[in-house]
């Protein structure tokens, strides 16, 4: 059947097996002829040879204008690493009506539930209490909860209200927290529609008992939470860094935690893996997580589910509905490091 | 104003300050003449002298028939330790139309949020990952989440569906867990009304990925979760013991955890404080909490709020709506140990 | 099996068939020996003869002290008409530890969904627009909605926050209405726990765009919403009378509607059936409902389900959890008319 | 300030006043230099003269390729009639990176609350009971509800799961209806994420007690619910036509209602205004609404709020988040009639 659409699959650093459960893999195979490069990037010669017939490209293959010129049938490019990188000429793709897509919300559910648990952990001292009991220093009665506070009803601030922030906000509903959101990319009405109050960064930091940071790194916001900003936070505030280390001034962050003024959790570090002798490993009042809140098998499978569902729609002539569309202007501003593996 | 109602306050092991925030204390003082014994039980002679005029008794004062006979104006007794104890002749109190009440749900919100955080902690390995990072043994990438599973959507079992169980169930809503409940004291319709499925104990244990135990201890159920029951659980199941140590066979519980078949969290221990050399302190796969999930200041303040609100209603001739009413038959079956302090 | 509990069933104006679906009837039959009087009240002689052995009484049989004295085994009386009437010596029943119960929430779901639909109908002019179209006077475009307002987000007031009010409040959640509640029998914390604001009657009336009245009639509140109160309402307010006609001054109510100041819906009338020539039938801006919002088969079946579930618990020595317990003081104040049939 | 962006406003059949509340109008004026044509379309000559400088176009101005060629600075076109019409060369606009947007969800809240109220009206007979009481034919007791059923818990089917369908689905949450959705443009996962079950059209029609139709008209689906489909519905099913008359075979629809097999509500008619002598005006079991469920002031104001919020983002170089983006392929398929006024 020579007419079946040609689908190039070049998912490094992912593999097809990691992102597709068997039933999703089957749906993908039913869509067309798959040419798959796993474990290594697809060879340039092969890409160039196949592009003239390709209708779908799944992967982070370099797609400068010259290659788009060679791909007259191409209808969609799916980034399955889930951060838009400068590998594509986004404006040219748009001009040709090629969908450039990424299932960016794949990790949201995994990160959100971890973030909530870590926030309650900080408020209630769960990990610290386990450590105390293991070292024989636990207290009982009211003394056991000195410094603890109820997470339910506590004022919450969210910095960055994309997929992660919204998913977290949904989990908060039964806790009835008043929620303020800082997100300079969003209109107030979008934030209010999620039962949250739009606010400036300073207001969020100064008035929230629990602060979640989900902001992406852009060319403009590196280190935007620094010494001044940590100084704005309330004594005893809990600060959860869940997106990228580069959005905070990391030394200022650790100083604020070490001083005892705030408690914190972080899933990200300026250099990963963290050095064996990095003093961050010994900081008190800091819940440590080695960049692991997102990387669940179930989250990776989401990548495949969302990609295949949208590929199905596109091949039927319908618009995609599950993945995020790349905006050329935004893609140019993002500064995430590529994922090293998985 | 000699007609103001006489209110006896004998709250040991609580104190009035611990259970009443200032505004609630003021409301209590506005209700009548308070006679308060703090720090020690009210002297028998004083109790006997005051009972003929007393309209409200707040505390765990012994109230056998002989004393009820001396208290013709008594309208309500509030147990503020929050477990009905055998200190009252419940049948005689009922026969006289005396409300016997306790704000038993005071601790529900505090316990529920801790329970949820601990459950996600077990599912996602949060405390264990912090420990690993402190000891320099953390992994990265997919390996960091070996054995983890998404709490969202995981099958949940709840054993005991009183205030704690229901509060926890409400927190689960955004996670969309299928929930089964075992509670032999409740009709199926009550469980279904909370979007949960009634089930036998064995079914709950055998089919749930995460099991919460909130059951009270009665004369009939001591150690009802033992070796056979732990054997029914799925490999990798998470078991959270949040009510009383006596509902499980504790050695069988620890064996199941040590074997690696299940992960667990416990807030309660057969003997508290736990001995410094108790081997429970070293068990892997066990999240340790030294009977601290309930004892928050905010929870203790709930005791005062609920007690005073119901006292206000009763003195207006209205029925109480916030506290639980003692059922003589049930009160006789409960076997909670009195609280040592606070 | 002579030891099976004796259960007297005397449900007039209900019949057992009307309140029990087949599976519930079977559960009832499994509980004990049933003696049933349907279609007419149980003969006094039979009641007197059976009471010495009776353990459960389902029905509105007269139970003065003399009869309670004859019923040493009686554990529970279920009023299945669902209004506590002065047919029982409530204090004596309480003194004997006899549960006096009624499945008062049986009608709540049926009334609540009708109330919501009627409120949206008034806000959006649904029934009026149907009438206009049937008479050929409908308008199009914006003119079609002159005077309409969005129910979503409109300020709501609830007068009486028992089963009906709470059920209605639950249905409002997705509409995000700010909700104020007036209920002098409830503490502020109970109202706040339902995400509503406690307020005085005047404040509720003066600040709400949509007002629901679910209050019961007592010896004290007859006609408590009268000319002064209708005058407090905002022009264009919608007033829904869903409980008992006697809580409003009915002529003042109709005057307020006729004047065009408010729109209204009523399910109740001072005299029912309403006279054929009663001018109420022609009032504009009034949505008419002939006491039919509660009387659904499904609601009547709830009576049986709740009664049988609690009878099952009581015969196992457990406290009832589904029905409301009669409070002697409250029962003495209620002034509902008995239901004429069904 | 010659650099302020030029914004062309050509909103016929809307006017700026109708779609903008004063605060939104102020925000719009703050964005740039407005050139407004209200009450009549902007003259061709003026459009042609202004396009070379225009950055934003709000309105349904014809924008063929030749005009896009004249508009090198144009960043966005907002359709404020809210249906994508064939007035734009969508492919060329996309190729130039011009956002083509429409606040299509503006009417969703207004339509959804009306739809819910009408569905409960059909289930519970509300409008019919008002009519009966006005004509003196009302019944009382159980007879008053002959043929009624509880909306809560009834099986619901939704045909078309765009903005309207999703908004309606959100309102159903407290009613706990099992919900099936037919929408051939959506992946199953999107439907499941809204707690609904994807199903074929036939399955939705055959298994639902209440069926809501929100489907748009396309070149492919005109009259897709016809005699065969009405025959699939359950006796007593309620059918609500809320989108466009052309999606049903209207005579077959009325036949099904007249036969008494189904009850229905419709907000749309093949020809509007409906002829004075159209027999549809007399059909029993049909709730009539003269295309008025959406046209609320508050909904029209939504158009302005969403448009201005997205224009603000775009002029800051950010992607729009509130309006729907036109997909060239989809825009070509839609067949809505233009709105005549407002």
Structure description:
- The structure is a homotetramer.
- Chain A is an alpha/beta fold.
- Chain A folds into 2 domains: about 5-105 and about 295-335, NAD(P)-binding Rossmann-like Domain (Rossmann fold); about 105-290, NAD(P)-binding Rossmann-like Domain (Rossmann fold, 3-Layer(aba) Sandwich), CATH 3.40.50.720.
- In chain A, about 35% of the residues lie in helices and about 15% in strands.
- Chain A has helices at about 15-20, 20-30, 45-50, 65-70, 90-95, 110-125, 125-135, 165-170, 190-195, 200-205, 225-230, 250-260, 295-315, 330-335, and strands spanning about 5-10, 35, 55-60, 75-80, 100, 155-160, 180, 195-200, 210-215, 240, 265, 285-290, 325.
- In chain A, the strands form 2 sheets. The first copy, chain A, has a 7-stranded parallel beta sheet, sandwiched between helices.
- In chain A, strand 4, helix 5 and strand 5 (about 100) form a beta-alpha-beta unit.
- The longest helix of chain A has 19 residues, at about 295-315.
- The interface of B and C includes residues 312 and 322 of B.
